[in-house]
Amino acid sequence: METVTTPVPSQEAVHPALLKPLADADVPVLRDAYRQMLFIRRTEEAAAKAYGQGKIGGFLHLVIGQESICVGAALALRPADYMVTSYREHGHFMAKAGSSLASGKAVLSELWAKDTGCARGLGGSMHMFSAEHRFLGGYGIVGAQAPLAAGVAFGSKYQNLPEVTLCFLGDGAVNQGAFFEGLSLAGLWKLPVVFIVENNQYSMGTPLERTLAHPDITLRASGFAMQRDRFVSDDVLEVRDRISAAVERARTEFVPSLLEIETYRYRGHSMSDPGNYRTKEEIERWKKRDSIELARTRLLKVLPEAELVAIDDQVRDWVAEAVRFADESPPAQESSIWTTVYAQPGTDPRRM
Amino acid sequence: MPKMSFREALNQAMSEEMQRDPNVLLMGEEVGYYNGAYKVSQGMLARFGEKRVIDTPIAECGFVGIGVGAAMVGLRPIVELMTFNFSLVAIDQIINSAAKIHQMSAGQFKVPMVIRGAGGAAHQLGAQHSNSFEAVYCNTPGLKVVMPSTPADAKGLLKTSIRDDDPVVFIEAELLYGETGEVPEGEYLIPLGKGDIKRPGKDCTIVAYSKMVGLALQAAKELEKEGIDVEIVDPRTLRPLDEDLIFSSVRKTNRLVILQEATPHSSFGGEIAYRVQKHCFDDLDAPIERVASEDVPVPYALNLEAIVLPDVARVVAAVKRTLE
Ligand SMILES: Cc1ncc(C[n+]2csc(CCOP(=O)(O)OP(=O)(O)O)c2C)c(N)n1
Ligand SMILES: [Mg+2]
Fold this sequence. Notes:
The complex is a heterodimer of chains A (352) and B (324).
Chain A: H1 16-19, H2 26-52, H3 67-75, E1 82-85, H4 90-96, H5 101-111, E2 135-138, H6 145-158, E3 165-170, H7 177-188, E4 193-199, E5 202-203, E6 206-207, E7 227-232, H8 236-253, E8 257-262, H9 280-287, H10 291-300, H11 305-328, H12 335-339
Parallel strand pairs in A: 1-2, 1-3, 3-4, 4-8, 7-8
Antiparallel strand pairs in A: 5-6
Chain B: E1 3-5, H1 6-20, E2 24-28, H2 44-48, E3 53-55, H3 60-72, E4 76-83, H4 91-98, H5 101-104, E5 114-119, H6 134-138, E6 144-146, H7 151-163, E7 168-173, E8 180-182, E9 196-199, E10 204-208, H8 212-225, E11 230-234, E12 237-239, H9 243-253, E13 256-259, H10 268-279, E14 289-291, H11 302-308, H12 312-323
Parallel strand pairs in B: 2-3, 2-4, 4-5, 5-7, 6-7, 10-11, 10-13, 13-14
Antiparallel strand pairs in B: 1-8, 6-12, 9-11
Helix pairs in contact in B: 1-7, 3-4, 8-12, 9-10
């Protein structure tokens, strides 16, 4: 099986995406994608600040730098489709909910451990859920979400529902047994699932070349009768289009796919990681390909600047509003400890 | 005696053993170039090189299995799990391979390896990262289970574990890594199966291990103000268990509180209670008490986590109940 080559991202002054024409129909889409990506980034920046103030505890993994993937993916989905993710999922959660103000409130309240959070303060940063938006959770055990996502797709297919499940994983997850078993079953049973590896070049402090025997992650799909695709994340519309192709293949032909999207996280692995294993130059090089900047530059060619400034202002107001909402929300409630462990009515963990 | 942190004591134990025996090696996620996710292996890659301090991909089932196989043919691997929460994806290799090979092969093969890493709740890590799994491993014949509470114990027990001919599950409380204490230099070995009295007392015995020893000591201070003098017994190794030390303490105090961070159902504390009622039935003046986490997954929110995890007030109350 031959390697799918990733187009080498340009380090030249003009990004190749800027040379592509922007279709009329894509202008409002890109404008909305820009708003979503910016809202996610600013929301996470607010979270990082709050972490320093002690409003958030535990692990906090930021998706800053990778926003085009979750936003592009959400644009490729129908509301009835599902997402299952790793612990680096605030952006995915928000994008699945259309990056509404409500989604920002739900995320920040969860991080603040408030009763108004998307998991009522029980889950925290790594374990966000929304039944309403069909967001089936962030998972903390690397790779665990792969078979789980295949199972969600199994459920859709079994019930003859035209739903697709997107499963997001880090590049580190592709070495887990669970990852291979999930892919194997998805291929064998032709499940409507798309596995998306967000290749941000590192698993914690370890660069890819020290974890992968072969650099093309999509080769892992080879034995499983799946489709594969490999590309860079810079252009959110391209992300949408390539994921759309995989999603529709899954929906109409029951062919699962493995996608590898090259990206970069600007921050450390989590708040406790100073990220000494990367040079400033490396980070700056990637920032030149920033998806939000790229979207903005493209939009400026077709929209008046005032329109983008209005979006920037709205995002700023929304973040302030979401922070205020989280600050003022009531804390997580003790009763939820006892009422949420079991689903069966009348089952109390204190009487086991 | 030099003072050092818990993580430094572990580092010293591993480094001394690697210096002593070329077949000892360290393998795990981020142990090398990153110097350890919790900095336990700081400087070890520089000292021993890539052949012996090995960064692995995130593939616990794979590299624990590698450790088992390598141990069967003569190496003494130390396999670091970033945390024991992730031991679950390797559990088949630990329980069905490492623990059973010596017996299945009628003693033809041994598995001298240490599986070590952080365990227990830290601050607000949520349900999947706050597990205490010692009962699972204690329930597995073929394994030994060690849970030190001080830097000195950590060093002495880890050195012994590395030299032990059987697979040892060595669980380090994440919140203890920064704790400091005096640690004997050089050759310092604590036998497995030998507990330690962390505080002598006469009114009530508290059996506590790992991070819970600190909680027991705090409770002892509170109780002291009210004239209650507790004895704290730290078994240090849960399997093999120094039951004689526990029995002799209970025979002296006639009361027992078991303190554990793990949830109560089917847990290690239940084993202690069984053995004590069996062997010290006539010595007990009160029902055995147990302080454990509430029987639920650990929630993220600080206020809820505080309700779920054991605290000083609950230990104090349990001791008082035995004295009523
Ligand atoms: C099974 C398992 N092993 C180890 C860990 C600890 N851990 C958490 S995140 C991480 C790195 C994951 O890297 P990657 O999959 O590339 O995702 P990224 O963080 O880059 O998004 C590790 C080792 C874990 N959570 N689960
Ligand atoms: Mg990664």
